[in-house]
Design brief:
It is a single chain. The longest helix has 11 residues. The protein is globular, with a radius of gyration of 22 Å. By secondary structure, it is α+β, with helices and mostly antiparallel strands. The relative contact order is 0.13. The protein has seven helices and 27 strands. Strands 1, 5, 8, 9, 10 and 11 form a six-stranded antiparallel beta sheet that branches. It has three domains: about 130 residues, SH3 Domains (SH3 type barrels), CATH 2.30.30.40; about 70 residues, Roll (SH3 type barrels), CATH 2.30.30.40; about 130 residues, endopeptidase domain like (from Nostoc punctiforme) (endopeptidase fold (from Nostoc punctiforme), Alpha-Beta Complex), CATH 3.90.1720.10. About 15% of the residues have low confidence. β8 and β9 form a beta hairpin. Helices cover about 15% and strands about 35% of the residues.
């Protein structure tokens, strides 16, 4: 029996309330790379500007963010992951995986199989492994994360909400990257470069949470869920070892970040995650000459480039001085998987989501 699911998104909202006051401000955008001018500000700001209030240097303003949950959302019901198949049935090819607590939009249900769309993957999942209907909605409310998605080609994340100096730039983040929002406040400054700021978390560095501010004009703030990962052609054509490394690593999307950790159960840090995945796939760190920390890893192995890197190789990132403080594993299609930090845990990012210092391979 085939059941067509309505594609109407019903608004079920949970308010993320941001406390309000404001100031007179200058609305010139911070220009980095082809960034657009500021638009869509709250009426509150207009009112304050019209009143001519110009003596305040900093305050917060109202920005209402809501969770809008589609009526046909489903959440993965599994301990680790569930396969997404080309057609309804276990004999068909696996085209993606849906990890624990990831979401999908149910397009139709056929004899116990749901056709879902999640991220860039559309395929079939057994309904035995999905929270659907009221259960799916309840789980979606529980699991939604408030994220700031970069909409400009690139944007600076700064130590303080100010463009008056470049000495406060922590790093540059590229379009499409999701940053965890730490505070339900938008800071406003009497700043010629940017008006509204959002407090966000970056990759943890040596166990320390890195916090910064990004101009609201260049991010889209909203609630999101983890999505499916597809089986990539580049990965499918790689060696069995590299194929296993990529597919195994994707099973742990969302794994919590633990400084000093090397566990795929209780948590790991960025280099510990690489260690654990390599070990899970039968590799011995000592035999490979693979050190424990990201800075040491970046000095070993064989250097590779964007033209020669293969799935399973390592990509290293650093601070503004070029000092390596983070490592990720390349998974094909210009993407990496990494233990980002305590706010987001293990996630997939664009390989160039921040400045790449070097790329190394410890594999044959």
């Amino acid at each position: 029996m085939k059941q067509v699911v309505k594609k109407v998104a019903t608004a079920m909202t949970i308010a993320a309330v941001l406390v309000c006051s404001s100031q007179a401000i200058t609305t010139k955008a911070e220009e980095i790379k082809e960034e657009k001018s500021l638009g869509g500000l709250s009426k509150v700001l207009d009112n304050y500007n019209n009143e001519g209030i110009s003596n305040k240097s900093q305050s917060t303003t109202l920005l209402s963010t809501q969770i809008s949950i589609p009526e046909n959302i489903a959440i993965a019901k599994c301990n680790d992951y569930v396969n997404i198949r080309e057609k309804a049935g276990t004999s068909y090819n696996i085209i993606g995986i849906l990890t624990k607590d990831s979401y999908g939009i149910v397009l139709e249900v056929i004899d116990g199989w749901a056709r879902i769309q999640s991220g860039s993957v559309t395929g079939y999942v057994s309904t035995d492994y999905l929270y659907m209907g009221a259960e799916g909605t309840a789980k979606a409310k529980e699991l939604a994360s408030l994220l700031a998605t970069v909409t400009a080609n690139s944007v600076n994340v700064r130590k303080e909400p100010s463009t008056l100096t470049n000495d406060n730039i922590i790093e540059e983040v590229v379009k499409g990257e999701d940053l965890a929002v730490l505070s339900a406040e938008v800071v406003t400054k009497n700043d010629p470069g940017a008006v509204l700021w959002v407090k966000v978390a970056l990759d943890d560095s040596e166990g320390e949470e890195v916090v910064g501010y990004v101009a609201k004009d260049y991010v889209d703030v909203g609630y999101k869920w983890k999505s499916a990962s597809k089986v990539d052609i580049e990965v499918a054509n790689s060696s069995p070892l590299r194929y296993n490394l990529v597919n195994e690593s994707k099973k742990y999307i969302g794994l919590r970040y633990v400084w000093g950790g090397t566990s795929l159960t209780t948590g790991a840090d960025c280099s510990g995650f690489v260690w654990a995945i390599y070990k899970k796939c039968g590799l011995n760190a000592s035999s490979l000459g693979l050190p424990r920390t990201s800075s040491e890893m970046a000095r070993g192995g064989n250097k590779v480039t964007s033209a020669t890197i293969k799935p399973g190789d390592l990509v290293f990132y650093g601070d503004s001085s070029g000092r390596v403080n983070h490592v990720a594993m390349y998974i094909g299609n210009n993407q990496v998987i990494h233990e980002s930090g305590r706010q987001t845990g293990c996630k997939i990012s664009n390989m160039y989501y921040r400045k790449v210092v070097t790329m190394r391979s410890y594999l044959q």
